[in-house]
Amino acid sequence: MSLVAGRTVTPSAEDVPDTDDGGEKVTAGSFWPEIALSDVRMEMRINGAVT
Questions:
Q1: What distance in Å separates the CA atoms of residue 24 and residue 16, rounded to the nearest whole number?
Q2: pTM as predicted
């Protein structure tokens, strides 16, 4: 198993509108930070259908 990308990452051919999740956040106790799903989608370049 390789963790190295096999090809060059290119920009999306078309823009996919983000899903309005109402500012939903994921929490896992007081030690871990709150994670906003919109931030995850932005950083990971995934659309609202996944989260």
A1: 19
A2: 0.42
- What whole-number distance in Å separates Cα of residue 47 and Cα of residue 50? 6
How many C-alpha atoms does 47 have within 13 Å on its Cβ side? Answer: 6
pLDDT in tens, 9-43: 666 676 666 667 777 888 888 888 888 887 877 77
CA pair distance 34, 46, nearest whole angstrom: 19
Could you state, in order of their start, the residue ranges of all structural domains in the chain? 21-46
- DSSP-assigned beta bridge partners for residue 35: 26
Residue 3, Cβ density class (10 Å: 0-12 exposed, 13-18 middle, ≥19 buried):
exposed
